[in-house]
Amino acid sequence: MSQAADEPRDTTHDGDERTEGTGAPFVPAGFTIPRGFSDGKIHLVPLGPEHNDRDYRAWTSSMDHIRRTPGFERYGWPVPMSREDNLRDLRRHREDFEHRIGFTYSVLIDEDVVGCVYIYPAGPPGHAVVRSWVREDHAELDEPLYELVSEWLREKWPFRDITYSPRTEERDFATR
User: Fold this and answer.
1) Cα 16 to Cα 56: distance, rounded to the nearest angstrom
2) How many Cα atoms sit within 13 Å of 63 on the Cβ side?
3) What pTM does this model have?
4) What secondary structure letter does DSSP report for 103?
5) Could you report the per-residue pLDDT of 96-147, keeping only the tens digit for each?
6) What are the C-alpha distances in Å from 17 to residues 3, 59, 156, 159, 162?
7) Cα(71)–Cα(126) distance, rounded to whole angstroms?
8) Sign of CA dihedral 106, 118, 98, 155
9) 4 to each of 25, 33, 41, 132, 164, how far by Cα in Å?
10) H/E run at residue 121
């Protein structure tokens, strides 16, 4: 699931929808948080406890692959954890979403969890760090997911700057 992508949670916001040290909200109060996204094949839906079994199977089947995914190389996740620990983590992600302090989406194909996307504050107001991973058996979706999420962020979200590790040498979506 998400310890790696969660690391910004502990260091960049204080739990009240504001970027630490600035008093600025992560997203404006009037902004309607997207409840998902679909390109017809890949669907993003807010991650929650209802995904526990599918999410747990997804990341535990691909731990080494996730560790090699851009944006996850230097984090200490994934690490072995129980389904109960995963469920607690999913509940925390749901709370972050409801409190508008971080946004995690399950990546689905049909009803199958094939990955996750994390959007959390980092740095100055208006800046987001985005990470995504896909299961090893869906590795071919990593770059298309990156492209879809990058476009979605540019078109639908209010961020001034976004850090999202590129999937190719030629493209860098770190800033707009």
Assistant:
1) 28
2) 10
3) 0.84
4) E
5) 999 999 999 999 999 999 999 999 998 888 999 999 999 999 999 999 999 9
6) 19, 27, 19, 14, 17
7) 19
8) negative
9) 22, 23, 26, 10, 14
10) strand 112-121
Q: Residue 71 and residue 82: Cα distance in Å, rounded?
A: 24
**pLDDT digit string, tens, across residues 145-161:** 999 999 999 999 999 99
Helices (H), the chain: 3-12, 52-60, 63-67, 83-98, 142-156
Query: What whole-number distance in Å separates Cα of residue 36 and Cα of residue 43?
Result: 7
The whole-angstrom separation of Cα 89 and Cα 27 is: 22
Q: What is the DSSP letter of 31?
A: P
pLDDT tens for 51-69 read 999 999 999 999 999 999 9
Burial 19-39 (b: 16+ CB within 10 A, else e): bbeeeebbbeeeeeebeebee
d(CA 164, CA 74): 14
Give, in degrees to the nearest 5, the angle at Cα 87 between 12 and 113.
90
Q: Which two tokens stand for residue 56?
A: 């747990």
Q: Phi/psi at 10 (nearest 5 deg)?
A: -80, -20
Q: Is the peptide bond before 78 cis (omega within 30 degrees of 0)?
A: yes
